[in-house]
Amino acid sequence: MKRPLAYLFAIAVLASCGGGGQGQLVGAYGRPEWYQIDPYGMNYIPMGAYVMGPSDEDVPYALNAKSKTVSVQAFYIDQTEITNNEYRQFVEYVIDSTAKRILGDEDIGEHVITEDEYGEELPTPQLNWGDRIDWWGEEEREALADMYLSESERFYGNKDIDTRKLMFEYYWIDLKNAARKAGKDLDLSYTNTLGHNNAIRGHSDRSKFIIKEVINVYPDTLAWVHDFTYSFNEPMTKNYFWHPAYDDYPWSASPGPKPMRSTFGVPVS
Fold first, then answer.
1. Regarding predicted confidence, which is higher, 179 or 160?
2. How far is C-alpha 257 from the chain's CA centre?
3. Helix (H) or strand (E) holding 236
4. Cα–Cα distance between 13 and 39 in angstroms, integer?
5. Over the Cα atoms of the chain, what is R_g?
6. How many Cβ atoms sit within 10 Å of the Cβ of residue 143?
7. I need a surface site. Which of 76, 184, 209, 269 has the fewest CB within 10 A?
8. Count of H helices and E strands in the chain?
9. Predicted local distance difference test score (pLDDT) of residue 212
10. Cα–Cα nearest to 266, from 155, 164, 167
């Protein structure tokens, strides 16, 4: 009985020694499998190249730049333009997130998470999307009163959201400035682990390259009037971004998010 057990033990030892890379570079273990899939509603455009420049000599203007091959990285593009209803989903998200922040500051409900699962305080409070907003609650209505238009600005007394306060906050990293080498303003007191004085400035203080942006997200619905002076577009101004008949129309009330100039007569979703 002892002999078979010894054989099994020897086989297990040999099997464990024979696995792995046997001393060779095989990459880190435990990496998750990943497969590229097309995001919903988008098309994949593969990487390619094209020739930039004149295709033939222009005799009157002989000082032509030489043609060159330009490579374009692969990217995704929407199958269709963003619709009004799709953009409205983003606007409603900003409305809810703004309300949750206000309620969190007023300590109403559980709309903001300030601690992680270990009980440690989070550097930035997170919104709790599992707690629904009671828009008709007495405390909530009092705390969220500033989100609505003042009584003097209301059209026929309608209590509409003040779209000028729908601000979206996001962050991005300025990689180009972070990659620049220090010049005349080089801080010679700083050196990296190899003793190099010409290290990237971002290694000394990376916070300077974290950029915070705050933009208004509600579209300029008056674009139909001021962009088309000699057209009667008042019906489009009042209905294009609000009426359900235009839900599947392209979101084109303005070339980009702008602060609202006016929303008189335009109900806010």
1. 160
2. 14
3. helix 234-239
4. 47
5. 30
6. 19
7. 184
8. 6, 8
9. 86
10. 155
In a domain, 17, yes or no: no
With respect to residue 62, please indicate whether it lies within any of the assigned structural domains.
yes
Sequence-distant contacts of 108-114: CB under 8 A, at least 24 apart: 108/139, 108/140, 108/143, 109/133, 109/134, 109/140
- Name the strand (E) or helix (H) holding 142: helix 138-143
pLDDT digits (tens, 9 = 90+) for 114-172: 888 888 988 888 999 999 999 999 999 999 999 999 999 998 888 899 999 999 988 88
pLDDT band at 102 (very low <50, low <70, confident <90, very high): very high
Task: Compute how many other C-beta atoms are within 10 angstroms of the C-beta atom of residue 198.
Answer: 11
The answer as to whether 43 is a domain residue is yes
Please tell me the least confidently modeled range out of 45-49, 51-55, 152-156: 51-55
Question: What DSSP element (H or E) covers 7?
Answer: helix 2-18
Q: Pull the structure tokens for residue 228.
A: 């088309």
State the pTM of this model. Answer: 0.69
Domain that holds residue 49: 36-79
- Tell me what the pLDDT averaged over the chain comes to: 79
The tokens for 6 are 């010894």
C-alpha span between 229 and 35 (Å, rounded): 51
- Residue 159: DSSP 8-state: -
**Are residues 85 and 241 in contact, defined by beta-carbon separation less than 8 angstroms?**
no
Domain count along the chain: 1
Q: What number of residues does the chain have?
A: 269
Residue with the two structure tokens 């004085």: 197
Strands 112-115, 121-127: parallel, antiparallel or unpaired by DSSP?
antiparallel
Domain assignment present for residue 253? The answer is no
